[in-house]
Amino acid sequence: MILPRAAGTGGAGLMSSKWVRTFLSVTLAALLSMAAGCGQAGSGSSSAGSAAQGSSDSWSKAAGAADEAIKKAAPDALLVISGNSGGVALANVPEAWSYTYYSPSTKHLWRVVVEHGSAQAPEDTGEAKATVTEGASAGSIKVGAEEAIEKARAFGEKSGAVPPNVMVGGAFATVAGNPLGTPGVWTVTFLEGTSLEGSRAFEVDMMSGATSEVTK
């Protein structure tokens, strides 16, 4: 997949960096299933360490199941990107979450889907081709994806109607040459149907919960 380049990174047809992140949120399903996009491991911490115990956030609970599943296939895996699985969720809270990991020892990407709390078998999506650094664990953040959706919707409704459908995604590592978005920030996009027309997008900090609307 060829991704638009963020402003300031060079290349033709530049788009604003904020709108690029909105676009990336809408195309998250494709990003999560691609077999290239990460490569030699740089610095980074293991994905081990699931979300906070007792959390009511469905993404955080699913992250624990995903971490347990990936340990069996790739114990050294780093979480790279995560979000809802299956494209646009036709509900306020997605039923399935996707977690993409990178294994430094095998240089492969792995994908784990957790649906209704049950983790599917990790899928090896192939050898990767870029540098991954600053990997973080799902358990190291304070605001999960479900909570990010709630915060974004509440913030948006203060200034007008928010479309019903949603996509959410966030980067947990820096991937050289492949702008997956700012690590540590959820991008939440609300849509009518599956089109960007009329959509509203928000950024939610994974640690503080600070929320802002993305402008085109």
List keywords for this structure.
nine-stranded antiparallel beta sheet; globular; two-stranded antiparallel sheet; about 220 residues; alpha+beta; 4 helices; disordered N terminus; single chain
The level of helicity is 10-25%
Order of helices and strands: HHHEEEEEEHEEEEE
Overall pLDDT, averaged?
Answer: 75
Give the radius of gyration.
16 Å
Q: Largest beta sheet, briefly?
A: 9 strands, antiparallel
Instruction: Give the total of beta strands.
Output: 11
Helix and strand content put the structural class at: alpha+beta
**Number of discrete helical segments:** 4
Note the gap between the termini.
22 Å
What is the topological layout?
Blueprint: H1 17-26, H2 28-33, H3 58-73, E1 78-84, E2 96-103, E3 108-115, E4 118-119, E5 123-127, E6 132-133, H4 145-157, E7 165-171, E8 174-175, E9 185-191, E10 200-205, E11 211-214
Antiparallel strand pairs: 1-2, 1-7, 2-3, 3-4, 3-5, 6-8, 7-9, 9-10, 10-11
